[in-house]
């Protein structure tokens, strides 16, 4: 019987990085990136404000996960992208993180320009339901730059510099670095980002 055990290996590597060895427990991602709506707490039917208001605190005070002192400076990765392509680059970064085994709740995505469609959609159910998902910490969370101060630290923070002023980017990037425990990924114009990170961090 001329069956050679090489055939399954060829099939396995045919997809490239997506076909990581069949160690099923490395990537616990039954749901990929937060889609239209994860089965989260019931949401009020009344529409909420268009953007999160950082000054308003959630009534259910969440315990801030900050028991350990900041271990080391997070690693910074820069993904060159135009303002128009920064959100797509951030999405690709999130997909790669999830495929590599990173838990969805480890990732916070921040936009400096137009809001991510997921955030806009979830905010339509009301701000408390939106922030309840953040506090649950079991899925990728998307926030506007104005809400960075309210977001809890996560192992990975992805920033899409997809618009907004240079002053906003200069304010957001150091804050995002402060929220990232292990890795900060910034998608945008490398010159502007390096200028901001070099001066502000």
Number of strands: 5
Radius of gyration from the alpha-carbon trace, in angstroms: 19 Å
Give me the side-by-side strand order of the main sheet: 1-5-4-2-3
Low-confidence blocks of residues: 3-70
Number of helices: 6
Question: Span between N and C termini?
Answer: 64 Å
Largest sheet: 5 strands, parallel
SSE map:
Layout: H1 6-13, E1 75-80, H2 86-99, E2 107-111, H3 117-123, H4 127-136, E3 141-144, E4 154-160, H5 166-179, E5 180-188, H6 190-200
Parallel strand pairs: 1-5, 2-3, 2-4, 4-5
Structure description:
- The chain has 201 residues and is an alpha/beta fold.
- The protein contains 6 helices and 5 strands, in the order H-E-H-E-H-H-E-E-H-E-H.
- The N and C termini lie far apart (64 Å).
- The model is unreliable at 3-70 (pLDDT under 50).
Salient structural properties:
201 residues; alpha/beta; 5-stranded parallel beta sheet; 6 helices; 5 strands; 32% helix; disordered N terminus
What is the structure about, briefly put?
The protein is α/β, with parallel strands linked by helices and 201 residues long. It has six helices and five strands; from the N terminus they run H-E-H-E-H-H-E-E-H-E-H.
């Amino acid at each position: 019987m001329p069956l050679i055990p090489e055939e399954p290996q060829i099939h396995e590597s045919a997809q490239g990085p997506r076909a990581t060895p069949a160690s099923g427990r490395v990537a616990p991602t039954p749901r990929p990136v937060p889609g239209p709506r994860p089965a989260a707490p019931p949401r009020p039917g009344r529409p909420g404000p268009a953007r999160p208001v950082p000054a308003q605190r959630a009534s259910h005070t969440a315990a801030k996960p900050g028991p350990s002192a900041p271990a080391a400076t997070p690693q910074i990765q820069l993904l060159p992208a135009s303002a128009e392509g920064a959100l797509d680059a951030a999405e690709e970064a999130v997909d790669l993180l999830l495929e590599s085994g990173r838990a969805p709740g480890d990732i916070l995505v921040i936009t400096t320009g137009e809001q991510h469609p997921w955030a806009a959609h979830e905010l339509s159910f009301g701000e408390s339901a939106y922030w309840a998902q953040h506090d649950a910490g079991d899925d990728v969370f998307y926030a506007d730059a104005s809400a960075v101060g309210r977001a809890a630290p996560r192992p990975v923070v992805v920033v899409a510099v997809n618009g907004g002023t240079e002053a906003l980017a200069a304010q957001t990037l150091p804050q995002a670095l402060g929220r990232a425990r292990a890795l900060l990924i910034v998608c945008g114009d490398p010159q502007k980002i390096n200028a901001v990170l070099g001066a502000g961090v």
